[in-house]
Design goal:
single chain; about 240 residues; mainly alpha; GMP Synthetase, Chain A, domain 3; 3 domains; 3-stranded mixed beta sheet; 3 strands; about 10% strand; elongated
Length: about 240
């Protein structure tokens, strides 16, 4: 059985060009990166397979190098059914479809605003998410990303949490990255995603209070009943 499988793999490898193999490998890599974002693991895997089946690069009018596999099939009557099936499959006319666009690696963040947006898309949970949210990106040198963690949250500097964040960033960018952490004073770490989220929430709250206080109907009620708005009860509409 093992020999039959080896013969089938050899025949299939001879029937597919190096360019096709490289393309399928690239589609597989990108698909593996996108699997965590698929609604279902099975559906994500099937989409990868469909991309491989549907997409065939322009060969410039040249045929695939199947001569070796075909001659072996004709020369030996003892060829295994598995091998013959592999050769027959490779000679089947390909499905004609529009080329599948292969996404390029995403550019690295270069500003605190971009870092805030990236952290929101990493899908981290628990303490790993807190580590990312309370860090500020200082710089990026090649694949090295330097982050400053506020001193108030220095206890989050754990190897396991740093590796979770690093793995999530590698999936997001589609390329290897390395993290370097430092601890900054709370007064200096003013552009972390956590600080930005808090500031935005406070601005929304204040805008909601202002809208209530300036509403004509609310003002008439206040004047008629000498009422006051309980600001703590005001909630912004999300």
């Amino acid at each position: 059985e093992g020999l039959v499988e080896q013969e089938a793999i050899t025949a299939l490898a001879q029937a597919i060009s190096q360019e096709d193999i490289q393309l399928y490998y690239q589609i597989g890599l990108i698909g593996r990166r996108d699997l965590p974002f698929a609604p279902e693991l099975r559906g994500g895997f099937e989409m990868i397979m469909l991309r491989m089946l549907a997409f065939r690069p322009d060969a410039g009018g040249q045929q695939k190098p199947i001569s070796n596999a075909a001659s072996q099939a004709a020369a030996s009557s003892r060829q295994s059914p598995a091998t013959a099936a592999s050769v027959a499959y490779s000679s089947t006319a390909p499905v004609v479809a529009d080329p599948v666009a292969i996404s390029e690696p995403r550019p690295m963040a270069s500003a605190s605003g971009s870092w805030h947006e990236i952290v929101a898309q990493l899908g981290l949970r628990g303490m790993a998410q807190q580590l990312a949210a309370n860090s500020e990106m200082l710089s990026r040198d090649g694949s090295v990303i330097r982050l400053a963690l506020s001193s108030q949250h220095a206890s989050l500097r754990r190897k396991s949490l740093e590796m979770q964040l690093q793995d999530a960033l590698q999936r997001y960018f589609g390329e290897p990255v390395k993290l370097e952490f430092s601890v900054a004073a709370d007064s200096q770490a003013q552009h972390t995603p956590a600080v930005i989220d808090k500031r935005q929430a406070e601005n929304r709250q204040q805008a909601a209070i202002d809208a209530i206080n300036t509403d004509p109907n609310v003002r008439r009620i206040q004047e008629s009943f000498n009422a006051q708005v309980v600001t703590d009860s005001v909630r912004p509409v999300e």
